[in-house]
Design brief:
- The complex is a heterotrimer of chains A (about 240), B (about 260) and C (about 525).
- Chain A contains 4 helices and 10 strands; from the N terminus they run αααββββββββββα.
- Chain A has helices spanning about 1-10, 25-55, 75-105, 210-230; strands spanning about 115-120, 125, 135, 135-140, 145-150, 155-160, 165-170, 175-180, 185-190, 205-210.
- Chain A is elongated.
- Chain B has 2 domains: about 1-80; about 85-260, Cytochrome c oxidase, subunit III, four-helix bundle (Four Helix Bundle (Hemerythrin (Met), subunit A), Up-down Bundle), CATH 1.20.120.
- Chain B has helices spanning about 5-10, 10-20, 25-35, 40-45, 50-80, 85-110, 130-150, 155-185, 195-225, 230-259.
- Chain B is mainly α.
- In chain B, about 80% of the residues lie in helices and about 0% in strands.
- Chain C has about 525 residues and is mainly alpha-helical.
- Chain C has a single domain (about 5-495), classed as Cytochrome C Oxidase, Chain A (Up-down Bundle).
- Helices cover about 65% and strands about 0% of the residues of chain C.
- Chain C has helices at about 5-10, 15-45, 55-90, 100-115, 135-140, 145-170, 185-215, 230-260, 270-285, 300-310, 315-325, 335-360, 360-365, 370-400, 405-435, 450-480.
- In chain C, helix 3 (about 55-90) packs across helix 8, helix 11 packs antiparallel against helix 12 (about 335-360) and helix 14 (about 370-400) runs antiparallel to helix 15 (about 405-435).
- Classes of the chains: A alpha+beta (about 240), B mainly alpha (about 260), C mainly alpha (about 525).
- The interface between A and C is large, with 79 and 86 residues.
- The structure holds heme-A (2 copies), dinuclear copper ion and copper (II) ion.
- Copper (II) ion binds near residues 243 and 291 of chain C.
């Protein structure tokens, strides 16, 4: 429904939409640059005009008074309506582009790894589909979208991956989600972005994207360890 | 509308203002009183478990507040009246309405997202008492209206009598409310029992505190009136406030008790 | 007239009450500013510096944010400026309810007292100015002080609103029509309407906070049927409109200053008032969810409010056009008040335009709660708002004190602060783009922003120097300034038709206004 609507709002900017952004990080970077250009123009126009007026109309004689134009009613309306429509058009354009990227953020690819995250003061506990649990270090296979379903044991926290341009709060009593796309192997910072007391700034973890083969090996190994631990503790 | 009050009353205005700086001690005293009645005792008692200090604050603050209000009303009745209290009361009601709206919004969000309502631990709500309370409060609006009408016609005895009746009805309302609270708490239903207890006591308590304030306003009208001093503006504004509190009660009783 | 303490402390005169507000607000600014300096010292390098206890930092930050907004900006604009200017601008002898007005100022001081107690009680509040539960309910810190600071100052503002709306509607001088009002008066009307509607909701939110914490209720406790998001929604339902409570009066007074110093009529007055101020008023109440983009709100709410948030650029843009248009064919004099007012045009442009990506929901998913946010709001509020207030203080200085300030000191203070704020608040946005979250005591995991942070800390020293010069210029003017004429700026506005400082009752005889009179009727 929502997705059907956005392009109606911005038919006239069709050329810019050539390539659908494919994941939050790429889409974000692109939209950010569009924003910079769009708003940069507005800034330059207004700032330049202000600077010019300040120079041009400075007072030269002590008794001078300004003689700004007295607008006719028609001019009054025009000076309100025309800029308003220009601004509205730009707002709709930005809204439509945001709408489009929003869908990328919210629609998680079906082919994904889904991990549960429970935050607590001051750590991140992840649970994999096979029941394996880790704290603070999330290992994922590179090249596969990862989705987190999040909740919190105590306060409101916010799971933030700066490199992947995603962040979402985790709250007690509610489940939220986010997804990201680790294309390349590597270590990425995860950190808490919602104030949660004393150790808020120390509530950090890592996302470790591993080559898919390595990940599969690690994953199977952990699963085995888990099973052994369970076997040792009957009923546990 | 009295748009040009300034011009029409120029001479007394000049006399009133231009010769000296106007002063009044009561706003400051009331400000200190408020600080001593609410924030400080609450913090002493609940945050720092210093109940003695809390009582001390109240002991100083309550008389101070009462004196300040009395002094203020006295000054208001004596002097150059603040004749715009009716429109001002309209703005105040707007703010008050939003207060209740905030509480009701939270109540409905909690209630609509609950798996079952009322949640476990609640007790059946009484129906007779709130019905009686409704009758009391609604009739007090009518009696106050009668008091206003009497005042307009200059029948001071009638005015005082009707005002007295309104105060009695309001006090009975508060009394019943207290009785009902203690009854429910006796059955083990308290403010901390569950989300319903939370909403129930905070909304009814918040409303009851408004009734108490309304009664205070009525007393502030009645006491000077016994000595023959009244202010039409104050009477009108007090009435608007009372009717508003009355209407809010209809929301409370319908949404919290019966729905 | 000889100085009489009694006539100040017990005063019910709007000018004196205004000055009392100013004193309280500047005290809050100074203490909160000193907290900012402590924070900047702490942040100058990663790792613990000034203190090794994160809690100290959290308390400074709590006080800084809460006091700057609740104790400084709103009282300075709606307390000091509204009190001082509105009755004078509309030709009234006082507000409608002088004693209520005095009560408001004392409630405000009560709130300041509650806030300052932060520094002397054990377990001071450490919950940030937003006070989100469940942290604020579970912390050992004193949440009650936060609640009562908000309630006292909020109630003070509600009473102020009642007072000023009644005053503007009923006490305008004979013949003063709605389209002849100063823009500042309009902006105060709109700001107080917002206060009356939304402050009560904030009051409810913070009351519930203390009920939950101290009386064991369950409003925000999901384990017992409550919901943590109720608080966030109620809080922002007020606190977003609150930014327009700040914006409107500061833009309003900027209009008045610029029109006076450009000696020019306001460009397209009606568009500014009905389109700009009215538009902001209309939109202000339906955009609060842009603070909750990352909080798991339903998508339709996030996207709907994204569009309305973006649309706020339309009325604000109309205000900007009128501001710049007022310079067009004006006769601009660069006295100190005007320096500040002109600078607002620039700093607010940066601040407002950096609000746009925050409004764009997906961009905000990355920027939210990073240093980009302090960057945005310091430009738009801390800088533009404070500049407008300082400009207004210089502007009204002759009227308030009967003396002139020194133009040299005024310029020096302005230049220092203008440089300083750009050194501090622009790098904040860059740090935010690096991903550094806000409210971090320590940022060892972000070595790439260490240089920027040091730079900001050095820049904050420049602001401090500027602030000291400004303070000095006021003290100097008060003690040594030349005697001020009644209308040093050649303004047409009503407040300059009386003596400096104005007598009790403002005018011996309220000026008579001709139908073509206007506060900006310069030129032909
Ligand atoms: C005076 C205070 C003030 C003002 C006026 C504003 C103005 C705006 N703010 Fe800001 N804001 C704050 C104070 C303020 N803000 C504070 C304190 C916070 C943080 C709270 C906290 O979490 O602690 C915040 C946070 C904040 C957020 C939440 C970010 C987050 O936490 O994730 C958002 C998101 O939408 C936002 C957006 C905006 C927008 C769109 C405007 C708009 O009103 C700006 C409009 C102005 C312009 C756009 C420029 C002029 C217009 C033109 C030149 C016309 C042409 C322009 C276009 C067509 C684009 N602000
Ligand atoms: C109007 C509002 C306002 C103003 C003016 C300021 C002014 C300043 N602010 Fe602040 N700020 C906020 C509102 C404001 N701020 C808010 C709302 C937050 C968010 C809080 C939160 O997260 O909850 C924030 C957060 C905030 C942070 C983020 C911290 C973090 O997230 O971890 C930082 C960091 O540098 C900062 C710095 C500063 C600095 C350096 C100034 C400087 O401009 C200050 C300059 C002032 C002075 C230096 C005082 C001058 C004093 C005198 C002249 C008196 C001298 C007298 C004696 C010595 C007796 N502020
Ligand atoms: Cu967890 Cu901040
Ligand atoms: Cu906002």
């Amino acid at each position: 429904m929502l997705r059907r609507f956005w392009w109606l709002l911005c038919l006239w900017c069709a050329p810019l939409q050539a390539a659908e952004p494919s994941d939050p990080a790429r889409g974000w970077d692109r939209l950010w640059h569009e924003y910079l250009i769009d708003v940069g123009i507005i800034f330059v126009v207004f700032a330049a005009l202000g600077a010019y007026f300040m120079l041009r109309y400075r007072r030269r004689l002590p008794d001078e008074v300004g003689d700004g134009p007295k607008l006719t009613p028609l001019a009054c309306v025009a000076w309100a309506v025309i800029p308003a429509f220009v601004f509205i058009a730009d707002d709709f354009y930005l809204a439509a582009r945001s709408w489009q990227l929003w869908n990328v953020y919210r629609d998680v690819p079906a082919d994904r790894l889904e991990v549960k995250l429970e935050s607590a003061a001051w750590r991140w506990d992840f649970t994999y589909p096979n029941g394996v649990q880790v704290t603070n270090e999330l290992r994922v296979p590179a090249g596969k979208p990862v989705m987190l379903r999040m909740t919190s044991a105590d306060y409101v926290h916010s799971f933030y991956l700066p490199d992947f341009r995603v962040k979402e709060d985790s709250m007690p009593g509610r489940v939220t989600y986010l997804w990201f796309y680790p294309r390349n192997p590597g270590e990425y910072l995860a950190t808490c972005a919602e104030f949660c007391g004393m150790m808020h700034s120390k509530m950090t973890g890592k996302v470790i994207a591993m080559p898919p083969g390595d990940f599969a090996a690690w994953y199977a190994e952990e699963e085995k360890k888990l099973a052994e631990a369970k076997a040792k503790k009957p009923g546990g | 509308m009295p748009r040009n009050t300034v011009e029409s009353s120029l001479a007394p205005e000049v006399e009133h203002f231009a010769l000296h700086w106007e002063t009044s001690v009561w706003p400051l005293v009331l400000g200190v009183g408020v600080l001593l009645v609410l924030p400080l005792p609450f913090s002493f008692h609940f945050v720092y478990q210093q109940s003695f200090l809390a009582v001390l604050c109240l002991g100083v603050g309550v008389p101070l507040t009462v004196v300040a209000i009395a002094g203020w009303v006295n000054e208001g009745l004596a002097g150059h009246g603040e004749g715009l209290s009716t429109p001002a009361m309209g703005w105040f009601i707007l703010a008050e309405a939003l207060l209740f709206l905030g509480f009701f919004a939270a109540y409905w969000v909690i209630r609509l997202s609950a798996p079952a309502w009322p949640p476990a631990g609640s007790v059946p709500m009484p129906t007779v008492i709130p019905a009686v309370m409704t009758v009391l409060l609604v009739s007090s609006s009518f009696t106050y209206y009668a008091a206003e009408a009497a005042h307009e016609k200059g029948r001071d005895d009638g005015f005082r009598a009707w005002l007295g009746v309104s105060i009695a009805l309001g006090a009975a309302f508060v009394g019943l409310s207290a009785y009902e609270w203690s009854d429910l708490m006796g059955q083990g239903f308290s403010i901390g029992t569950n989300a319903f207890g939370t909403s129930f006591y905070s909304i009814t308590g918040f409303h009851a505190s408004h009734v108490v304030v309304g009664l205070g306003v009525f007393l502030a009208i009645l006491l000077p009136a016994l000595g023959g001093r009244t202010s039409a503006g104050l009477i009108k504004a007090g009435g608007i406030y009372w009717h508003f509190v009355d209407i809010v009660w209809l929301f409370v009783v319908s949404q919290v008790y019966f729905l | 007239m000889a100085f009489s303490l009694k006539e100040w402390v017990f005063t019910t005169d709007h000018k004196r009450i205004g000055v009392l507000y100013l004193i309280g607000a500047l005290a809050a600014f100074a203490v909160a500013g000193i907290m900012a300096m402590l924070m900047r010292i702490e942040l100058h390098s990663p790792g613990p510096d000034l203190t090794s206890n994160p809690n100290d930092y959290n308390v400074w930050l709590y006080f800084h944010g809460a006091a700057m907004i609740l104790g400084f900006q709103i009282p300075a604009l709606l307390g000091y400026l509204a009190n001082y200017c509105v009755p004078l601008m509309i030709g009234a002898r006082d507000v409608a309810f002088p004693r209520l007005n005095a009560f408001s100022v004392w409630l405000f001081f009560g709130g300041i007292v509650m806030a300052l107690l932060t520094f002397v009680v054990p377990d001071p509040p450490d919950i940030m100015w937003t006070g989100y539960p469940p942290y604020s309910i579970k912390t050992a810190g004193n949440t009650a002080f936060y609640t009562f600071t908000v309630l006292l100052i909020g109630f003070s503002s509600i009473l102020g609103g009642i007072n000023f709306l009644t005053t503007v509607v009923y006490l305008r001088a004979p013949g003063l029509g709605w389209n002849q009002l100063n823009i500042f008066v309009w902006s105060i009307v709109a700001a107080f309407v917002i206060q009356l509607i939304f402050v009560p909701v904030l009051g409810v939110a913070v009351t519930m906070l203390s009920l939950d914490k101290y009386l064991g209720t369950h409003f925000f406790n999901p384990a017992n049927g409550g919901d943590v998001l109720i608080y966030q929604n109620l809080f922002w339902f007020y606190s977003h409109p609150a930014v327009y409570v700040i914006l409107l009066p500061f833009i309003g007074i900027t209009f008045d200053i610029i029109a006076t110093f450009a000696r020019n009529r306001v460009f397209n007055y009606k568009a500014a008032v009905y389109g700009g101020i009215g538009g902001v008023l209309l939109l202000s109440g339906e955009v609060w969810v842009h603070h909750l983009y990352t909080a798991g709100m339903p998508d339709w709410l996030r996207l709907g409010q994204m569009v309305s948030t973006l649309l706020i650029s339309v009325p604000v843009g109309l205000l900007m056009i009128s501001l710049l248009g007022t310079l067009y064919r004006g006769s601009i004099s660069f006295r100190t008040p005007n320096l500040y007012a002109l600078a607002v045009n620039f700093t607010f442009l940066i601040g407002g335009l950096t609000g746009i990506p925050l409004a764009m929901a997906p961009l905000d998913l990355n920027l939210s709660d990073t240093y980009f946010i302090p960057g945005h709001f310091h430009y738009v509020m801390a800088v533009s708002g404070t500049f407008a207030i300082f400009g207004a203080i210089y502007y009204l200085f002759p009227k308030m004190t009967g003396r002139m300030y020194s133009e040299v000191l005024g310029w020096t203070g302005f230049i220092l602060t203008f440089i300083g704020i750009n050194l501090v608040f622009f790098p904040m946005m860059i740090a935010g783009l690096y991903g550094m979250p806000r409210r971090y005591f320590d940022y060892e995991q972000f070595p790439q922003v260490a240089g920027l942070q040091l730079f900001m800390s050095l820049g904050s020293v420049v602001i401090l120097l500027g602030a000291i010069v400004i303070l000095w210029s006021w003290i100097h003017g008060l003690l040594k300034g030349a005697k001020a004429p009644d209308n040093p700026w050649g303004s047409k506005s009503l407040e300059w038709t009386t003596q400096s400082p104005p007598p009790p009752g403002n005018w011996v005889e309220v000026p008579k206004l001709s139908p073509d009179w206007g506060p900006y009727a310069y030129g032909k």
